[in-house]
Amino acid sequence: HSFPTRRSSDLIGNIIPSVSDEYGWYMQIESFAKYGKIFGNYGYDGSAAQLAGTASWGIFPLIPYILIAKVIGANFSIMVISNLIFLIIAVAVFIIFVKPDKKQLIIICLIQPALFLVGLYSLGSMSECLRFALSIIIAGILVKLLRKEGNFAFKYIFVPVFLTFSVLCYLLNAIWIPVYIFLVLRMKKRWVK
User: What average pLDDT does the structure give for the chain?
Assistant: First the structure.
C-alpha cells in the first residue's frame, strides 16, 4: 500500500489517489455520485462491460461513499474524508452499544493509536476503513447481545440487516452470522433437542 499523494500543505484538501486501486475506487464513486452509474470499469473510458464495472466487490462497499459524495461532492479526497467519518461513527456506535465505564473508556482510547493499519488505511483512498468500521460495530453488537441487551427490533431487525450489509461489503463478515444466531437462540432457549 502506498501513502496518498498531496498537492499542497492541506491535511486533507488535496489528496490524490496514488495507486491504481485507489484511483479505481475514486472513479467508481465519482461516476455513481455524478451520473448514477458507471461507464466502463472506472467511469469514463467505456471499454469494459457495464455489468462487471464494479469489479469483484459489487456496489455495496461503494454505497456509503456515494452517499457522502452526494452530500459534500466527489473530489479526490472523498474516500479519506469518508474513511475518517466511518471510523468516528463506528467507535461512537461501539461506545454506545458497549457502555464502557471510565476505566474501560480510557483503555479503548489508549488502544486506538496502536491500530496502525487502521490509521494507515484511513488516510488512503481504499475501502478497508469501511470494513474496519463495520467490524468495530459488529464487535459492539456482539457485546450487547452477549450481555442480553437490546429490544426485539434491535435483535431481529437491525442486527440481521446490518450483518447482511456487512457481508455484502466484505464476505469475511459472514463468520459472525453463526455467532449472532447462537447468541439470539441462546437468549430464547430455542435449541433443537
Answer: 77
Instruction: Give the model confidence (pLDDT) of 119-139 as tens digits.
Output: 777 777 778 888 889 999 999
Would you state the pLDDT for residue 96?
96
Instruction: State in Å, rounded, how far the first CA of the chain is from the last one.
Output: 50
Coil, helix or strand at residue 16: strand
* pLDDT greater at residue 35 or residue 158: 158
**Rounded distance between C-alpha atoms, residue 38 and residue 65, angstroms:** 14
Is residue 112 a contact partner of residue 159, using CB atoms and an 8 Å limit? no
Give the Cα-Cα-Cα angle 19, 2, 23 (nearest 5 degrees).
25
CA distance 122 to 100: 25
Q: Count Cβ neighbours within 10 Å for each residue of 153-165 and write b for 16 or more, e otherwise.
A: eebeeebeebbeb
Full-model pTM: 0.76
**φ and ψ at residue 5, rounded to 5 degrees:** -90, 140
Separation of alpha carbons 109 and 191, rounded Å: 39
